[in-house]
C-alpha cells in the first residue's frame, strides 16, 4: 500500500503500476480525460479542485516555493486520491518525465537536510505539490489541469482532440550529488551535459555567433508570467550554420525537452516545429562559462518553441529548464482554432 509523504521508490511504483497506452487517440475518450474524471470521482468536494478555464488562477504558474498555490495538496490526499493523481500525470508524461517528477519531489527532503530545517518546518516537503483543474473535464469543451510545487510546473490544456503542455518547467537543486546528503540521481544532468557538448563543438566563428558576452542570467528570461517576456532580438547561432553532427546534437536536445511528455504529445509538438520550418528555423544561444561548475545558460528558440536552461544559482548547482510555446501559450492557438471551427459549424464567429 502506498503511504502518504511517500519516498521516491513509492512514487515511482505509483507512476509505473499501470501499463501506459502509447498508441491511443487524444480525443474525447482520451486516457487523460478518463484519468481526470477518475481523480474527481475520488473527491467528495471536487469543486474545490476546479477553477475557471482561461482565468487568472490558470495563468498564475511558478517554479518557486509559494504559499498561495491553489488546488489540493498531494500530502493531504488519501492514498486513493494520490494514486489517481499519479495516474493523471502518467497519462501525460513519458517514463523519463515520471522519473524526473518523482525525483524532484523527493529532493525536498534533501533540501530540508541541507538547510538544517526542523522536523516540523513545512517549507520543504515532498508532498507540497498541488493539483488543480481549469474548466470541468469534458471532451466537448476546453479544460486543463496543473500539477505544481517547487521545481515542477505542469500546465496541460485539452482543446478538442489536441493537447498543449506549455508552459512546462522542471528544476533541480542540488543539481550535483553531495556526498552524505544527496547521493542520488543527478536529475537534469543530460540537459546540462548535452547543451555544453553542443556549445563546445562550435568552431571559433560559430561560438562568436552563439555566445552572448557577459555573465549568464540569474534566472530564465521568459519569466513566469502569463505572457512570454520578449527575448533580445538577433541572438544566437542558426541551425543552418551548423554541420550535420551539430544539427543532430541540437535535435537531440529538443527531443530531450519534449521527451518528458508522453509520446503522442511529444510527436505532435515535433510536427508543429517541423511545419514551422524544422531545425532550419531554430537558433542556439549560450551565455556564461563553458566548463562544469561555471555559471551558464542556453536557449533554443524558434517559431513554436523557446527552450531555456539556466544553471547559475548556488555556485552553478541549481538548474531550471523551461519550455514555452510563443505560438500556442496555454494552448491559446488551439483554442482559437476550436472557436473558429465551432463558429463555422454554427454560423457565427468568436472574437
Can you give the helix content as a percent range?
Answer: 25-40%
**Could you tell me the number of beta strands?**
13
Separation, N- and C-terminal Cα atoms: 51 Å
Structural class: alpha+beta
Give a concise summary:
This protein has 351 residues and is α+β, with helices and mostly antiparallel strands.
Can you describe this structure?
With 351 residues, this protein is α+β, with helices and mostly antiparallel strands. The protein contains 11 helices and 13 strands. Strands 1, 2, 3, 4, 5, 6, 7, 8, 9, 10, 11, 12 and 13 form a 13-stranded mixed beta sheet that branches. The longest helix has 20 residues, at 95-114. Mean pLDDT is 89; it is low at 1-10, 16-27 and 346-351.
Question: What key phrases describe this protein's structure?
Answer:
11 helices, 13-stranded mixed beta sheet, single chain, disordered N terminus, alpha+beta, disordered C terminus, 351 residues, 18% strand
Write the layout of secondary structure elements.
Blueprint lengths: L7 H9 L14 H11 L8 E2 L4 H4 L12 E2 L5 H12 L4 H20 L14 E6 L8 E7 L2 E8 L2 E3 L3 E5 L16 H12 L3 H7 E2 L24 E2 L5 H15 L4 H13 L7 E6 L7 E7 L2 E7 L1 H4 L2 E6 L7 H15 L5
Parallel strand pairs: 1-3, 8-10
Antiparallel strand pairs: 2-3, 3-4, 4-5, 5-6, 5-7, 7-13, 9-10, 10-11, 11-12, 12-13
Helix pairs in contact: 1-4, 1-5, 2-4, 6-8
Amino acid at each position: 500500500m502506498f503511504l502518504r509523504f511517500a519516498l521516491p521508490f513509492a512514487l515511482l511504483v505509483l507512476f509505473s503500476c499501470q501499463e501506459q497506452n502509447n498508441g491511443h487517440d487524444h480525443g474525447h475518450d482520451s486516457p487523460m480525460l478518463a484519468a481526470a474524471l477518475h481523480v474527481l470521482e475520488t473527491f467528495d468536494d471536487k469543486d474545490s479542485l476546479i477553477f475557471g478555464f482561461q482565468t487568472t488562477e490558470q495563468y498564475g504558474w511558478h517554479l518557486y516555493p509559494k504559499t498561495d498555490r491553489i488546488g489540493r495538496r498531494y500530502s493531504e490526499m488519501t492514498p486513493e486520491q494520490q494514486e489517481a493523481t499519479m495516474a493523471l500525470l502518467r497519462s501525460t508524461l513519458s517514463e523519463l518525465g515520471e522519473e524526473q517528477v518523482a525525483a524532484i519531489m523527493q529532493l525536498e527532503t534533501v533540501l530540508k537536510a541541507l538547510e538544517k530545517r526542523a522536523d516540523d518546518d513545512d517549507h520543504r516537503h515532498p508532498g507540497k505539490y498541488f493539483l488543480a483543474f481549469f474548466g470541468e473535464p469534458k471532451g466537448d469543451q476546453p479544460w486543463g489541469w496543473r500539477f505544481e510545487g517547487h521545481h515542477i510546473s505542469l500546465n496541460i490544456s485539452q482543446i478538442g482532440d489536441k493537447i498543449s503542455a506549455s508552459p512546462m518547467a522542471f528544476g533541480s537543486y542540488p543539481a550535483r550529488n553531495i556526498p552524505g546528503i544527496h547521493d542520488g540521481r543527478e536529475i537534469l544532468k543530460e540537459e546540462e551535459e548535452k547543451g555544453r557538448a553542443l556549445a563546445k563543438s562550435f568552431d571559433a566563428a560559430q561560438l562568436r555567433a552563439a555566445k552572448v558576452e557577459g555573465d549568464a542570467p540569474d534566472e530564465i528570461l521568459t519569466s513566469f508570467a502569463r505572457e512570454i517576456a520578449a527575448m533580445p532580438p538577433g541572438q544566437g547561432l542558426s541551425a543552418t550554420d551548423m554541420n550535420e553532427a551539430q544539427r543532430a546534437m541540437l535535435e537531440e536536445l529538443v527531443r530531450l525537452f519534449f521527451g518528458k511528455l508522453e509520446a503522442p504529445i511529444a510527436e505532435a509538438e515535433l510536427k508543429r516545429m517541423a511545419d514551422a520550418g524544422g531545425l532550419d528555423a531554430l537558433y542556439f544561444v549560450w551565455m556564461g562559462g563553458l566548463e562544469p561548475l561555471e555559471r551558464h545558460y542556453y536557449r533554443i528558440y524558434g517559431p513554436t518553441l523557446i527552450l531555456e536552461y539556466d544553471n547559475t544559482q548556488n555556485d552553478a548547482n541549481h538548474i531550471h529548464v523551461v519550455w514555452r510555446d510563443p505560438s500556442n501559450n496555454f494552448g491559446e492557438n488551439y483554442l482559437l482554432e476550436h472557436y473558429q471551427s465551432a463558429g463555422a459549424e454554427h454560423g457565427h464567429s468568436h472574437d
